[in-house]
## 1
Amino acid sequence: MRTSLCIALFTFSLSAAQAADFPLASCAGWNGTLVSRTGTDSSTAVMKGMVTQANFREYCERDPGGETTAHGGKLTVKQCVATYTKANGKDTYRSTANCIEGTLSFVPPRGEPLRVTFPLPEDADVSCASGMPPLIEQFKLLCPQAAREFHLMDDE
């Protein structure tokens, strides 16, 4: 899902019906839902996200871990969603970027914050295993102008 938004130093909030993905640092995991974004294309860009039942449903239906009966596991999709909602349903996410300096910091609900500087070196690991693809997507959401300059956008 690709959305092009032109916003400068304004905050916006999305209703559930308009919700966009908050890309998270695991290609095999779930995405969050983007709740707000401020300062796009600035030195103080920030976006916040949370996880919803819809995020867990998409994950459980895709089931990369083989947990559901449809993929050889023991849980129904409904049980899978309930399990993750109970364990992670209050998780929130935050990413900040300095678009001028090309930096992004991602703060997960647990664990250490991740930081990346763009442009990436030519030999940078951008595989799913590296956790880099969702961070690139976050940077594109917060800093679309810089992302174009660093050749991260599809429409180059």
## 2
Amino acid sequence: MSIGTFTVRPLDPSKDAGLLHRWVTDPKAAYWMMQDATPGDVEREYRRIADDEHHHAFLGLHDGEPAFLMETYDPRYVELVGLYDPEPGDVGMHFLVAPTDRPVHGFTRAVITAVMEQLFADPATRRVVVEPDVGNKAVHALNEVVGFVPEREIDKPEKRALLSFCTREQFEAARGASA
């Protein structure tokens, strides 16, 4: 059963802030740490990301409709500076699925798979790095399904995080195992 087609486009902080505000302040987005953000706060944050050469935000579309947020970053300069030794080809990633009152079984797994495919479509990407909150057990399980292997817990300014990695080979093996 096909869930549909996923594509991404660069996020436009001005045009997309209202939509993102609804997503990041939803109770299910608690780990995004923007629960009390105003629409202006959201626009400022994504404008800051748009202005950062090492951090990028994309709006993910499902069959042409906004459905998820994807961020990529260079861990040598953003998020993980001084917390681990980056390797050539490391790319950091965050993603957030839009809240819905009509959940589709397997949708979040399809989104993270699409995100990983997007990242590994760049031949320079050798390994994807994530650092979710240690308490976010649902995302740890989801990360494992697509091939992430936890390395260790780290202390970031805003949270205790589980540093995890997924190589291209691990992702391909996980996709093959789930087919």
## 3
Amino acid sequence: MATQEPSGAPSALTSSALAAIRRTSAVDTVRARISLAVDLGLLAPGERLPNVQATAAALGVGEITVRRALSTLEREGVVQRRPGRTGGTFIAERPRRRTVAQVAAYREDSERVHRLIDERIVLEAGFAQLAAERLGRPGLDRLDECVREMDAAESWAEFHASDKRFHLALAEGAGLPSALGMYERITGELYAYFLPYPLDYLRGSNAQHKAIRAALAAQDATSAAALLRDHVAELHHSMYVGFADTAERGGDG
């Protein structure tokens, strides 16, 4: 879902004129995100998708948008629906690949995504530096709650919701309301490009959250900033843009 641009002249990387996904309907962005996750092997054949409500919340769209997208993906052979108490929506056993033309918008925006990640790195490393000095017990308790939720998450959608809360709680702990607005804009733009990811991979990333939390509790500003910087910088490789870059180089190098 597109976010509101701030007043004044937009920067080059946030200009809606340069964002290919801004020219794509909400239904087609959902189709593209699920299809691209299948193409990249992030969603496996036979894997069950979260329910419509959780998927809508994770992808930042309405439930009716998700229902329409899944109906189209079923007709296209990417997903299949099974009725009954144990039913739901699953990736097809032999999903059709590269069937959603709107995936091209995500590939077209690759450079923009890398720039958004860099902006997020700058802000979050700075937030961590300040939060190490200012974050009190209530703030640490909020981080702990998010970490527990991520450990217990049963789907990528649940994990993503708790991950967003963790990073927002850390940003708020820096005590800079003016910078927080900028951060929410950048992350809002970036979250529009997130894809479903294997839950085992996501849970592994939670170890980094725990290390960041420990540095904050120890008031080790240098370590907290470095850990946060590395954690966010990993998005250059772990988001779909990293997979695309590897494919363009013709290997895993």
## 4
Amino acid sequence: MGRPRTNDETVKERLVVCATEMLATRPRESVTVRAVAAAAEASTTAVYSLFGGKDGLIGAVRDRAVAGLFQELSAVPTSADPLADLYALAVAYRQWGREHSHLYTVLFGGVQSFDPSGEVGASDPMRPHLAAIDRALAASVLTGEATSIALSIWATLHGLVTLELAGALGAATAETAFRSTIHATLRGWTTPAVFRSLRQTESALPPDFA
């Protein structure tokens, strides 16, 4: 009987899945090639032949996280209301984080450096946000510098999602905090005329809808 293959897609997938879970739940120094290979029931040789080593494997995990979040946000439809689109993007961001908590932790948990102020690439998860912000600026709905607005929204989102994933917020509290905080963040960047209009609309709504 020949030796089992160590470089097929099944083994590759197991290695990525195991590495993702370990990177999200353990200290990084404990995530060794040997430990990941053992968890995936693969050989250490497979890690090197498929990924070139530990750094390549970590890079593959991060690439999967970036691609997944980008795909989720890119699927959000564009409407005639850029402010509503930004809120819909926030909802999609939170949903992806909740459904892929390990990938989210790897992407934003310091496993690899993340520079939210760096240049935005074609598949950067912030690109859909920036596109909606640009539309809002062009329509005089928002005022300010696009990158600063995007960073403000991302920082708010990241804080909310991180607290929720950590179990610091109950389900009802997380839902209410998300809705009110995202609306407040977006409202803070609106032009004076839009701000007044939003406040007037909100003051006419019952408390549960504001």
